[in-house]
Amino acid sequence: MGKYQYHIFICTNERSDEDERGSCAKRGSAKIRDYFKKTLYERGHKGKVRANQAGCLDACAFGPTVVFYPEEVWYTLKTEADVLEVIEKHVEKGEIVERLLIPKPWAAAETDLNVVT
Ligand code: FES
Predict the structure, then answer these.
(1) Fold of 6-116
(2) 48 CA to centre of ligand 1 in angstroms
């Protein structure tokens, strides 16, 4: 196992209003990042699970974009309830939350984890 059980990257990239690609920041990623950090801390994951903000992860249309390593599972997490669900299921039970996956080719690759719907 690496330094962390999970290393989570949360895109907080921001673009101008004129940029038609949009950005995760415009879709509320700062709130998602803050809730991730607060909830991981409150649930006792400090030092075991690391959540870092990131620049553009090149999946802008699905933002806020979040990637879990080591499995490289890509999620689109739009609400605090979505974040809580991936913490409860993915972080704490090792289950991928299929309904929140970014569609392939960014979705979870071959993995040993269970997929829950
Ligand atoms: S702006 Fe977030 S993935 Fe590109």
Answers:
(1) Glutaredoxin (3.40.30)
(2) 26
